[in-house]
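Researcher: Here's a chain I'd like modeled. Treat it as a single chain, no partners, no ligands.
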Amino acid sequence: MTGSGFSTRESDQITLAVPHGTASRRTLWGRDELLDELLAAVRDEGHKQDAGAVHVVQGLGGVGKTSVAVSVAHRLQRETDQVWWIGAQDASRFTGGLTALARQLGVPDEEIAVGRLADQLWRRLSALAEPWLLVVDNADDARLLDGPGRLALGTGLVRPHRSPRGLVLVTSRDGQPGTWGDHAVLHRLTPLGDGDGADVLLDLAGPTAGSREEAAELARRLGGLPLALNTVGRYLAAVGQRPARFRDAGETATFAEFRASLDDGGAFPHPGTATALAGIWRMSLDLLTERGHRCVRPLLEVLANFADAPVPLILADPAVLGEDEAFAGVSGAEIWAALQALAGLGLVDLAAANGVETVALHPLVRDAHRNPGWYTLNVRLLDKAAESDETGLPEDVERWPLWSALTPHAVHALTFEEGSDDDQVFPNIWTAAMLTARSLHAQGQLSQARKLLDELVPRLGGTLGETHSDTLTAHHNLAVVLHDQGHHDRARAIYEDILTTRRVTLGEHHPGTLTTHNNFASVLQDQGHHDQARAIYEDILTTQRDTLGEHHPSTLTTHHNLASVLDDQGQYDRARAIYEDILDIERDTLGEHHPSTLTTHLSLAVVLHHQGHHDRAAVEVAAVLSARRRVLGPEHPDTLSVQRWLDIISAARDKP
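Model: Modeled as a single isolated chain. C-alpha cells:
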C-alpha cells in the first residue's frame, strides 16, 4: 500500500521503506535456515506453527540482525508490496513510524488522537489476508515498545496478530524471554562458523587475499562477527585493488597479515572498524546502565582481562569484587543481574560445562574492553579462587573440571605484569600458578605443567631469591614433573640442590627435607642405584615413624617406596607383605578408589606377577584398570600405565 492525500505532518515525513544494504545484493552466509523459517510465516504453506507470534531476532551488536531482516524484507518484496520498516532507536522515530503505518492502513486521525493508535493498527493488520511484513529494527530498549500497555503481556505497541499470512519481525540485542512474553518467538543469532566466515571474507576480498584456510583462521580470530567480517573483507578488497607501490606502511593486504596484526595487539587497520564496533557496544552498556545495572561496565572490563576462554563464575566473586571502589556496595544479586543483563544483550554467554558455570565473551568484545587498570583485581580474584574451599586440592579428582576451567586464566595472568604499573601483581599470582601446575600434573598433563613451571621458577628466583621457600617449592615440583617424564638426570640434579639448601635452612629431619630426600632416592632407584635408594628409604622411614607415626601419609609413601625397591631387588615376599599392610590401611582411611589406594593395589599385583601368580595378578590389575578408567579417564598416564602392566601380565600368563 502507498500513502497519499495526507497532510504534511511529522509522521508523513517518516519513510517506511526497507533500507537497501549488502543483504539485498549478496549472499547472507550461514543464515539460510533462519531465513526459511521466517519466510514460512508469511507464505501460504498450510498450518504454521507460532502463527501470529512476534518473531525476535536477537544477538550481539554486529552479529547481523538487521541484515537478516533486510534479506527477509527484500525477498518478500518480490511477492507483496505490503512490507514496512520502522526504526526503534528512539521513541519519536518508533511512534512516528507506527503513526505513519496506521494512516497508510486507514486509521482515522481522531482514533490516533484519543490514544487508540495501537488497538486500531493491530486490528487492521490482523484483518489483512494478503502477505505482509512489519519490521521493527534496533529495538534494543524494549521499553519503547510498551506504550500505554505491556509488551510482555501482548498489549504493547508491538503485539501478536491474527493475520494468516503476516509476520512481525523485531531485531534487538535484548534476548531475555521475560522482556518479550510467551507470545514471542526468540531467534538467537550467533556468530558465523569458520566456514561461513571464510565465505564472507572470500566473497568480499577475493582469492588474492589468501587461501580459504587462511580466511577461516582470520574468521575465527574475528569471532565470526559479521560486522567485523564485512568491514575487514571490504578493507582487504580496497587495499588489494591498489598496486603494492601505492600502499602505505602498515597496511595489510592478506588474511594472514591481518590476523597477525590482531594477534600482535594491533588495532583494526581500517579506522571505521574499531569505531563502529566500539560504538555498538558502548550503546549496549549505556542502555544497561540506564536500566540500573551500575556495575556492568567495570564488570565487563574485569572479565575481558581474563584469557580467551570461558571464565568460571568463581572468578566473579562478589566478595572480592566488593573490595574495589568501583564495586563498593554492589551486592551478589546485582552482580548476577548484571551478568544476566550482559547475556541478554549478547555481550556475554552464560553456560555450564562439566558442572562448572562459566561466562564467555566474544573475542572482539574482549579485545575492545580489556583494561590493564583492573589487573590487580583480576589477580585477587584468581588468588582467592585458587585457595578457596570450592576448588579444594588440585589432586582431588572431583575438582578437576573447575581446575581445568581456571587453568587458562592462571597461565594468562603471568602476562599481567607486562602491562601493569603495580609491582605487586606478579607476587600475588604465583600461588595460583603453582596450584595450577599441581593440577595439571595430577591430571597427567605433564608437558603443560612443565611449561608453566619452567616459566614460573626463574621468575620466582628473580623476585624472591633462589633459596626462598616458595622458589624451592616450585623448583621441587618441576623436578617431580621431570622425573615423571623420564628426565632423571635433570630431576636428580634439582633434588640434590634443593636437599642441600633445605638441610641448611630447615634441618635434616624437617618434613620438607625428608620429602625431597625421598624423591631423590626415587630417582636413584629409577637410575638403577637400588642399594643406595633402599638405604635412604630405611633411614627416612625410621625418622617418620618416630616423628609422624606409622599411619601418616608421608610414612606410608616412604614405606611404599621401600617395598618398590625391594621388589626391584627380587625380595618379593617382603615387598608383598609391606604392600598388603599398606593396602589395608589405605582402604580403611582413604577408600577403595583413592589414587593412593589404587597405586598400592597395582604395586601388589605386580609383585604377585613377579612371584608367578599371573592369573591372580591379572584379575587384580584388571580391577585397578577399571577403577582408573572410571576415575581418571582412559587417556590419563596412570591409566595407560595400568593397561601396559595388564598387557605384560596377560602375555606372561599365556606363555607355556
